[in-house]
Amino acid sequence: MKMILTFVKTTLLGGIVVLVPILLFYLLLSEMLEVVVVLAKPIMEMIPASISNYIDEPLGLAVLVILSSAFLAGLALRSIWLKRFGTLIERSALNKLPMYKAVKRLSYGLLGAKSEDVFTCGVIELSQGVRELVYIVEDTGNGFVTVMVPMAPTGFNGPLKILESDRVSRLKATVGQASIPVSEWGVGLQQLVTGEK
């Protein structure tokens, strides 16, 4: 009888572990799609009816409108005047928000931007033959770097350490590229590390 209860309990828990993430993903995706449709409605109203009548699926049009609007906004931000305005807003308001600089550095690191103040990747040698992947959070040029040791499988949390710069070997990979093997419990990490500078 105890074996049957154990079997039922473990099977039920195993099913819950599989179904709950799928259900949460579905709910999150449906909520995101609803938000996209709501955000696109004001923009869709500006599209002439002769064009919007040919599209039967409002979600497809909403996604297309959002992507087009994002492209146009990005194109506008490339102008010198808007860059200066954006820099002014960033300096006077956004830099005062907690976490803004860290999130900006992380997002630039994920995209592989080439700048001095972005998260980059490296490895540290803990002992003979034991190496650990780190994200270089800050290098102030004083001989020390601040690093974060990513924890699998989330990759964007872990302990922070201040190390001597020469203990960290920098990688050519971006933070985005390095986060993939971390999220997959290390699968592909050795190939990433062998591309070391």
Description of the structure:
The structure is a single chain. The protein has 197 residues and is α+β, with helices and mostly antiparallel strands. It folds into 2 domains: 2-77, no CATH class; 114-193, SH3 type barrels. It is built from 7 helices and 5 strands, in the order αααααβββββαα. The protein has a 5-stranded antiparallel sheet with strand order 4-3-2-1-5, with helices on one face. α1 (2-44) packs across α3. The longest helix is centred in the first third of the chain and has 43 residues, at 2-44. The protein is flat and about 70 Å long. The protein starts with a helix and ends with a helix. The model has no long low-confidence stretch (mean pLDDT 75).
Secondary-structure blueprint of this entry?
Layout (H helix, E strand, L loop, with lengths): L1 H43 L4 H4 L5 H20 L2 H13 L7 H12 L8 E8 L2 E10 L4 E5 L11 E5 L3 E3 L4 H9 L5 H5 L4
Antiparallel strand pairs: 1-2, 1-5, 2-3, 3-4
Task: Write a brief caption for the model.
By secondary structure, the chain is α+β, with helices and mostly antiparallel strands.
